[in-house]
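Write out the bound-state structure for beta-D-glucopyranose.
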Amino acid sequence: MAFPKNFTWGAAAAAYQIEGAWDEDGKGPSIWDTFSAKPGMVFENNTGQVACDHYHRYQDDVKMMKSLGLQAYRFSVAWARVLPEGIGAVNAKGLAFYDKLVDCLLAAGIEPWVTLYHWDFPQALMDKGGWRNRDSSLWFAEYTAHVVDQLSDRVSNWMTINEPQVFNDQALRIESGDMKKKPPVADALQCAHHILMAHGRAAKVIREQAKKKPRVGWAQVGVSYFPSTHSEEDIEAMRRATWQIDPSNTWSNIWWLEPVMKGEYPAEAAKRYGKYMPKVHDGDMQVIAQKLDFIGLNIYSGDEVKAGENGEPIKMHQAPGFPKTTMGWNVTPEVLRWCPRMVWERYRVPVMITENGMANLDWKTSDGHVHDPQRIDYLRRYLREYRKAAEDGVEMLGYFAWSIMDNFEWLEGYKQRFGLVHVDYATQERTPKDSARWYQEVIATNGGSV
Ligand code: BGC
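---
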């Protein structure tokens, strides 16, 4: 079986990771501007101040995307570029950048997929308490309305937030000034509640105010598993692992998805988190549970699960020397079949892979090329598994490779290279890696060459 007919093939990036121009044209600071400027926080004190300079080079970058045959490009809008204070006065020049980017993409025949929030919270609003503040969802809705008003005559694919599981935790660590310190569960859950409300309010704004009929989703990361064998017992154990609450962290799929899809926190959560459960006001759950057109999944790696004696899920450890990316993440292609399948099975909403890819030790070799056979193998194996999800009956909209180009990898700075296209940060030269050429063929054959 093949990939579905209307399948969308794209690549993704995010504002802070590629744009640079951190204080140009009236942009306000985000928490990542402030945080990365503090010595010792990011690998080699790298910052996103210049990054890939995409803000100035977007036209050439779009040309490059076109030359690779990309059908869609997922990018994020920098909230503080549009609203330097996070709320209030709009920065017309900031908004104009995204306007031009969208036009340029459409002229190149590339569909824009817009993420409203990819971790760069406006510093001015962090100073008002960030996601701790119950008003945060109203701030986000205000910002969303401006972006939707400006772009929705041409954009139809929207994602509210990217990986709430990660940025919730991260924002609290940044706030505490200690990235190694785990935030208290009660704080994390209360902020998560506000984040869920922000998602809901934004989804409602998009649905009600978009000029072009929108497709609304979000991009989550959650936890991914795959079964040790295809026995019914192992598959059931993996299903249980996928939907259980792990009280040791605030990442559980069910914690985030159940409120969004069903308008309630899972009953098990109250038992597991007890007194740490968030304060929920009347009407909050209705705000959170907006209809979604797709569930975006960022999937990189996952754990193998097998059934114990009583069917309980047991997480397996891989043997020493198991293949890993330079992030230290296990290469586990099967998650691209099983995680979409679990989500589809439970919610019956189409799935979009909003991120998948790997960091590798890439450099330009003496022949002038960037050879990345590991990435080609990684993508091929993951895509083959994703195709099996289609065979299993999962409704899937498409696939975004992370990332279109090497970029600022958060705490890892420029050490980790995730791109299909190599970036020389000294000269800003772009060189498509072997994997970019390989992906071009994948797109041209609708996955037939995988
Ligand atoms: C994030 C990206 C990040 C990538 C690789 C995801 O967690 O959405 O911003 O660069 O994974 O770590």
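---
The chain is about 40% helix and 15% strand.
The first helix runs from residue 15 to 18.
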